[in-house]
Design a protein that fits this description.
The structure holds two protein chains of two kinds. By secondary structure, chain A is of the alpha+beta class. In chain A, 19% of the residues lie in helices and 36% in strands. Chain A folds into two domains: 6-169 and 185-216, 2-Layer Sandwich (PmbA/TldD fold); 289-542, no CATH class. Classes of the chains: A alpha+beta, B alpha+beta.
Chain lengths: 547, 438
Amino acid sequence: MKRRDFVQLAGLGAAGAMTVPSELMGKNVPVEALLDPGVDTAGKKVMADTALNTAKSLSATYADVRLGRYLNQYVFTREDKVQNVVNTESFGMGIRVIANGTWGFASTTDVSSDGIKKATEQAVAIAKANSKIQKEPVKLAPVKGYGEVSWKTPIKKDFKDVPVSEKVDLLLKANAKAMENGANFVNSALFMVNEQKYFASTEGSYIDQDVHRIWPTFGVTAIDREKGKFKSRQALSAPMGMGYEYMDGSASEKMSAPGDIKLYRNSYDMVEDAIMAAQQAKEMLSAKSVEPGKYDLVLEPNHLGLTIHESVGHPLELDRVLGYEANYAGTSFATLDKWKAGDFKYGSDIVNLVADKTQAGSLGAVGYDDEGVACKKWDLVRDGILVNYQAIRDQVHMIDQNESHGCCYSQSWNDVQFQRMPNVSLEPGTEKYSVSDMIKDVEKGIYIAGRGSYSIDQQRYNFQFGGTVFYEIKDGKIGPMLNDVAYQSNTQEFWNSCAKICDKDDYRMFGSFFDGKGQPSQISAVSHGSSTTRFDGVNVINTGRTI
Amino acid sequence: MAIYSKEEAKQILEKALSFSTADTCEINLNGSESGNIRYARNTVSTAGHRSNQNMTVQCSYGKKSGVATIDEFDDASLKKVVKRAEELAKLSPENPEFMEPLSQQEYLDSSTYSASTSKITPEFRAKVAASSIEPAAAKDVTAAGFLNDSAGFAAMMNSKGLFAYNESTSVNFTVTMRSNDGTGSGWVTRDFNDVDKFDAEEASQIAIDKALQSRNAKAIEPGKYTVILEPAASAQLLGNMFGSFNARRADEGRSFMSKEGGGTKLGEKIVDERVNLWSDPQHPDVPSAPWAGDGQARKKMSWLEGGVVKNLFYGRYWAKEKGVDPIPFPSNGIMDGGDASLEDMIKDTKKGILVTRLWYIRTVDPQTLLYTGLTRDGTFFIENGKIKHPVKNFRFNESPIIMLNNLETLGRQVRINGNLIPYMKVRDFTFTSLSDAV
């Protein structure tokens, strides 16, 4: 009962406690401290060189340094109350070395010359101690030194320049509108993250990056006290790699969808969504329960993103495939022999899944990864065939490649970096084809929007997904709202049932803000883009129970 | 040095408190030293050591509060952190749910600290890894495991005269063993306050045996089966059920514990009468801190007795609103077991499934506490009192409420993640599909 699964945080509804994962917290600071520019790049370079030179003098064959300043602001409200405004700052240095062919890592908040030297010595000592039981010496793929370079998330409005009162007012307004429209309870939150990261390595790179992310979200609950029933409707926002401009609610980024719902692309109207959520939560209390059976599923991008994440993103992480995550998240069905065969049918011919660390507005976009590799885009599944994995410098040689994919990440200067999922997205269909065209082509189906319950096995075969809202599709027309819907399938079977994908006009991103992996567990944020997609003949179960 | 004695902690807290001029001030002080080792592919992958110390100061003027934290405790730092909390408090909106700090409380004695655990070395951790890797390699099995140990303290003091201190240690171990032909997998978990109770070889051997026994599993039809759930399999479902014992959510009508027409299920029988669930910070097998972070005393508390809901937990604000005594969230869960051994339970089963663990458990419907997830790392078919063969993993969709109503037999208790959970035999457990995962 001690472990609170932080993934529940995303729920914000009846099941989720409103607690911030401890991994995300730094020191509490006054809001003004967020505007402090911190150490300049010349100062950072001096600190980095101290660590790199110390490591070399201790006979390390490689060293990298991450000097991180992480500034976060979170705002939490419920109904008409502000529950908490949290401003945190975390600053320190992580030093990773290779000595005797073995990794060693240490971190410190003491960035004086002596503090850095001491931490570096500790990292080298750990590497040397562990080298005695090391059976697989580290082999790094080559990377060029980039010299002094920088990268910044192309934001239009820095959250740190927006007064807290403006953010609080927006959340309270969304809450009030939800209450006016029939909600009994509403919790809302705004997560804003700024990672200021300086990376340097013995390869000759000095990389300064300024990364921004934002996630507005809420959970609206409607109650029927007489029947003792409650239903929750979560926000249809997506966490984004954007600035506060995401909160503008621009009309040009709104999209109409079946069931008269509104969906959002690169700009979010929280108040409008809260009104819709309250109305839908009430409607859910009396919506009809689904008849179990086979259905053609029409999956909206903000729903399909989570299915992509679990059934494509995770199984194609090379460290999982190789067994490094066996004791926690598990291994993968997408084994090396399947990839080597060159004809493993991951999905139907129209399925093209790409990894991309450069996609604008995405949570995973950076210029360089956390081991100094310039980011890029590459294919994972092309024309339905498995063609590649996600790999970093010390593992990519195991799939006979000599260039890292640039997807190494650490949640903090305090934790060691390792392979993390890049943005993984489904390419849109090439023919002109809209969501209403798709609905017309379905005889017996269900339209699903937004994320819901999700569970998948440790090798990523069998999964079960719920959603936020469900609508019946009958004879080419959208019907009433449904309740108690979840679909169960097998990854390969599911992707091979992919029958049609809408065109690029419908393309948008889903995001996961708190994806967990590793021991001790670390979080990362990642986006998944797609257009609305149809999967034929998927098994739908009814999750309603009477107790 | 991140661990302070009771006297040292008291002195630091008194000093910090002396700098505050706010209406009320409450300070928490924590420190820990922890180490870990991670291994996979029968070799060590990462290892680390972490030292943390932190002070959190909450200052309040009326119902306006500010919080600041710091990790250095010299006079200048203490002054700075208190001043910062006071400044933040003055700028904050009023919190209508603000509760004044508590005055001194009576606390039970604690037995959460073990000197042996606090002395664990990197060499010991490497030896634990070797205790898994060597016997695994000898049996054509691959080990992936994680050991984390920690020693730390928590202390608090406030302007109403409350002082509390507790020292604790913990060691947590898990290992997954996979047969090298890729068809078998076993797992084991152990956790203790006192590392002297931990036997890495014994634990690793269980996981190796399961990996070998679970090779070449056969598929059987999903459906409703009698299951024998090992304690690690039911622990999380029980923990999730326990999350609904929150009085406020129940009163608000948005919990399984809410009643039709209003009110809560307090006093109602919701599961089999053999189910008794309680907490006790002084239980010798699962000792836990005798006070909660806001200074409330934790004591022995019954949650389910004879299948009847005896108590719900009330935060201090909600307790005041409802005119009842506050009840803090407990730090352990203890479910009474029975005399049956696992062998007895298997012997008495005509047809059933033995489940090592359930994994990737997620809420499907909070209304009925319906959860989904999968079996993992050792699932076996039982027929006519004997384990017949390993079976492929299943996905389940089940509610712990239904599970505890379908109780057949209770077995002996095992410590799982700080809780005491019995082996359980349950009829009609709902498996909804098969998984090919090993």
